[in-house]
Design goal:
The chain is of the alpha+beta class and about 350 residues long. It has helices spanning about 1-15, 20-30, 40-75, 80-120, 135-145, 145-175, 175-180, 185-225, 230-240, 245-265, 305-315, 325-330, 345-360; strands at about 270-275, 280-285, 295-300, 320, 335-340.
């Protein structure tokens, strides 16, 4: 039973139950792993492209008609030479560029804007790095038959159904005019079918954008689920950030030892050591050039206090017993800092007493 209990605790520690920490989110973002819906990109792109076609359609039509008219009136009488062919292709390329440039420009703007809307500013080359794990056929098969693949299948079927219903509805509502297009002129028929195409594109884009809201919500939920951490992961991350507690304890112990050694080196220069007499010891030094008030150069309790008294005795530093003052100075004073104003009179009287004894000696 003990073994079973230990195994259950082990699996519980490895279970991904904790929300991702800010560091984990930052690391996954650097790798390019962010919640993102391709339907937002597609819907936004279609909306802007068909919108620019709706606005600039007459201009594009005029450019293309002029190009064809010019081709069949001017170029038909030219001789076929290398220079003439080069001129024809140059002019045709320029005219076509004037038609395509607005569409391509708005497509680039749509792609950048939709990604900024979802992800923000992010530059990373991690997704482009070669990874042999992606060629693993077993993992590939698992992805094909995974729950995510099923969700993507349902989403694709829903998109096809929505776009099909939208386009069929527009065609059905305009079926009478479509049947009468045979009696229209070529220009009128082209204008009618062009308008129909634009309306179907705009309606499909809006349908995709509505669907993309649901898809982005799912992608965000799936991303949060994938980056969850176990309790062990959280502890390991904390150790990596803050350092191993055992190492930190050793560092602090080493720092205390160095501080104690430095403090003991100041005791021989002290003017007096105030004692409890057994538990507390505070070494005081008065240096007019350093401070207007006496400075605590060392203090300690129990073992450290005994060491301070031993060093003071070895260096003929005067020791005076004053239990209340020793306790108060230990509690309210810091090493290498002047004493508090409340201790001025008591310490001054004590230093005066020490100076008189030294003068007599």
């Amino acid at each position: 039973m003990k073994y079973i209990k230990l195994d259950l605790q082990f699996f519980a520690a490895d279970e991904k139950t904790e929300k991702a920490t800010p560091k984990k989110r930052q690391d996954t973002r650097k790798k390019g792993q962010v919640p993102k819906s391709q339907d937002v990109n597609t819907g936004f792109l279609m909306l802007l492209v068909f919108g620019i076609l709706f606005l600039l359609g007459p201009y594009m039509k005029a450019v293309m008609m002029n190009m064809y008219a010019h081709s069949f009136t001017e170029y038909m009488h030219w001789e076929v030479t290398e220079a003439q062919v080069h001129m024809v292709f140059s002019e045709m390329t320029w005219e076509i560029s004037k038609v395509i440039a607005p569409v391509m420009g708005i497509a680039i703007v749509a792609g950048v804007a939709s990604n900024l809307l979802q992800v923000g500013v992010l530059f990373t080359g991690e997704p482009l790095k070669p990874d042999l794990k992606k060629l693993d056929p077993i993992k590939g098969a698992k992805k094909i038959f995974s729950a995510r693949a099923l969700v993507e299948l349902v989403k694709s079927l829903l998109k096809i159904t929505m776009i099909g219903v939208v386009t069929f509805t527009i065609i059905w509502l305009n079926r009478d005019e479509m049947m009468m297009s045979a009696q229209r002129s070529i220009d009128g028929a082209l204008a009618f079918f062009g308008t129909m195409t634009i309306w179907m594109g705009l309606a499909s884009a809006l349908a995709l954008l509505i669907l993309s809201v649901l898809d982005f919500t799912y992608q965000k939920y799936d991303h949060e689920k994938n980056i969850r951490m176990s309790k062990k992961d959280v502890k390991d991350e904390y150790k990596n950030i803050e350092g191993d507690p055992q190492i930190k304890a050793k560092i602090k112990e080493k720092q205390r030892q160095m501080s104690a050694a430095r403090m003991m080196s100041e005791v021989p220069g002290a003017d007096v050591v105030i004692t409890n007499p057994t538990h507390y010891a505070i070494a005081i030094k008065y240096d007019e050039e350093r401070s207007d008030a006496p400075i605590v150069v060392a203090k300690g309790v129990d073992f450290v206090a005994q060491k301070i008294k031993e060093v003071a005795k070895a260096n003929d530093v005067m020791m005076v017993e004053n239990r209340p003052l020793a306790r108060a100075l230990y509690q309210d004073s810091e090493i290498d800092q002047p004493i508090d104003e409340q201790f001025y009179q008591a310490v001054a009287e004590l230093l005066a007493y020490v100076y008189r004894l030294e003068k007599k000696m």
